Amino acid sequence: MGKLKVKKIVDKFQLEVLSGREHLDRLITTSDLSRPGLEMAGYFTYYPANRIQILGKTELTFFERLHPQEKEVRMLKLCHDKTPCVCISRGLDAPPELLAASKERNMPVLRSQLTTTQLISKLTHYLEAELAPQTAMHGVLVDIYGVGVLITGQSGIGKSETALELVKRGHRLVADDVVEIRQPEENELVGTAPELIRHLLEIRGVGIINVMTLFGAGAIRNYKKISMVCRLENWDNTKAYDRLGLDEQKMKIIDTYVPQITIPVRPGRNLAVIVEVAAMNFRLKRMGINAAESFAHRLTAAIEEHDDKHDDL
């Protein structure tokens, strides 16, 4: 899990800062949120202090019935050192005891005009995306017919040149050189480009080019789900490459296994066309059409038929 400053959610959702503006650099480390109903009643044994605390109409209505001394104690316990912030929904007024406790504990108190359910839904969705496990890989990510293809290989193998040819063929560039990868959900990887090199492509001998400027907005994407990996490697005459496509290779990225194919590189091979066909073949496999398996079945049937005829003789 990553980390996120409270200031980012303040800016993202236009939250009003009621207290602790100077402490918006407190860190959010989990996408889980908490509605401290039991804590308002005084039960702090299993208090999830590291979560954003959401106070809605139910919590604040119950809180108003408490004795003044109980209010102070409850709010001091609620404003834990590990708590990133407290957020009040529906534009409700913050109890004075909460504001006093937040100042004492140096913790921000925020307010939103959204209903409690809307606020929780939007915050959860945003935090799950921002705090998802992340990594960075050397490679190129291209959207080919809706399939996110991550092209990897050693430096100078021709990844960027292949991506340029794919863009010319109508496909869309997501990232070149460095691909930032997040895992927002189980078995799902989303790739994007670092802000500094977004929409840029490096071609040796030419230099840096801006794909969006040269080919238009339709030639780029800001992010794309990674469906398969194409690994480019120099042709090795001593190596037996898969000629049927029956061997399933997988590449582990974070905690997700992604289908991988290895494409040998040598003069005369049009890598862009090969990668494009690999992407189309991947789509067909997802639709239940596997040319390699179909050929294997036909070959087996032909052999069996031949053997039967030979036995008859």
UniProtKB/TrEMBL annotation:
<keyword id="KW-0547">Nucleotide-binding</keyword>
<dbReference type="InterPro" id="IPR027417">
    <property type="entry name" value="P-loop_NTPase"/>
</dbReference>
<dbReference type="InterPro" id="IPR003755">
    <property type="entry name" value="HPr(Ser)_kin/Pase"/>
</dbReference>
<feature type="region of interest" description="Important for the catalytic mechanism of both phosphorylation and dephosphorylation">
    <location>
        <begin position="201"/>
        <end position="210"/>
    </location>
</feature>
<keyword id="KW-0479">Metal-binding</keyword>
<keyword id="KW-0511">Multifunctional enzyme</keyword>
<feature type="domain" description="HPr kinase/phosphorylase C-terminal">
    <location>
        <begin position="130"/>
        <end position="298"/>
    </location>
</feature>
<feature type="active site">
    <location>
        <position position="243"/>
    </location>
</feature>
<feature type="region of interest" description="Important for the catalytic mechanism of dephosphorylation">
    <location>
        <begin position="264"/>
        <end position="269"/>
    </location>
</feature>
<keyword id="KW-0460">Magnesium</keyword>
<comment type="subunit">
    <text>Homohexamer.</text>
</comment>
<dbReference type="Pfam" id="PF02603">
    <property type="entry name" value="Hpr_kinase_N"/>
</dbReference>
<feature type="active site" description="Proton acceptor; for phosphorylation activity. Proton donor; for dephosphorylation activity">
    <location>
        <position position="177"/>
    </location>
</feature>
<protein>
    <recommendedName>
        <fullName>HPr kinase/phosphorylase</fullName>
        <ecNumber>2.7.11.-</ecNumber>
        <ecNumber>2.7.4.-</ecNumber>
    </recommendedName>
</protein>
<keyword id="KW-0723">Serine/threonine-protein kinase</keyword>
<dbReference type="InterPro" id="IPR028979">
    <property type="entry name" value="Ser_kin/Pase_Hpr-like_N_sf"/>
</dbReference>
<feature type="active site">
    <location>
        <position position="159"/>
    </location>
</feature>
<comment type="function">
    <text>Catalyzes the ATP- as well as the pyrophosphate-dependent phosphorylation of a specific serine residue in HPr, a phosphocarrier protein of the phosphoenolpyruvate-dependent sugar phosphotransferase system (PTS). HprK/P also catalyzes the pyrophosphate-producing, inorganic phosphate-dependent dephosphorylation (phosphorolysis) of seryl-phosphorylated HPr (P-Ser-HPr).</text>
</comment>
<feature type="domain" description="HPr(Ser) kinase/phosphorylase N-terminal">
    <location>
        <begin position="5"/>
        <end position="127"/>
    </location>
</feature>
<dbReference type="GO" id="GO:0016301">
    <property type="term" value="F:kinase activity"/>
</dbReference>
<feature type="active site">
    <location>
        <position position="138"/>
    </location>
</feature>
<keyword id="KW-0418">Kinase</keyword>
<keyword id="KW-0067">ATP-binding</keyword>
<feature type="binding site">
    <location>
        <begin position="153"/>
        <end position="160"/>
    </location>
    <ligand>
        <name>ATP</name>
    </ligand>
</feature>
<dbReference type="InterPro" id="IPR011126">
    <property type="entry name" value="Hpr_kin/Pase_Hpr_N"/>
</dbReference>
<keyword id="KW-0119">Carbohydrate metabolism</keyword>
<comment type="similarity">
    <text>Belongs to the HPrK/P family.</text>
</comment>
<feature type="binding site">
    <location>
        <position position="160"/>
    </location>
    <ligand>
        <name>Mg(2+)</name>
    </ligand>
</feature>
<keyword id="KW-0808">Transferase</keyword>
<dbReference type="Pfam" id="PF07475">
    <property type="entry name" value="Hpr_kinase_C"/>
</dbReference>
<feature type="binding site">
    <location>
        <position position="202"/>
    </location>
    <ligand>
        <name>Mg(2+)</name>
    </ligand>
</feature>
<dbReference type="InterPro" id="IPR011104">
    <property type="entry name" value="Hpr_kin/Pase_C"/>
</dbReference>
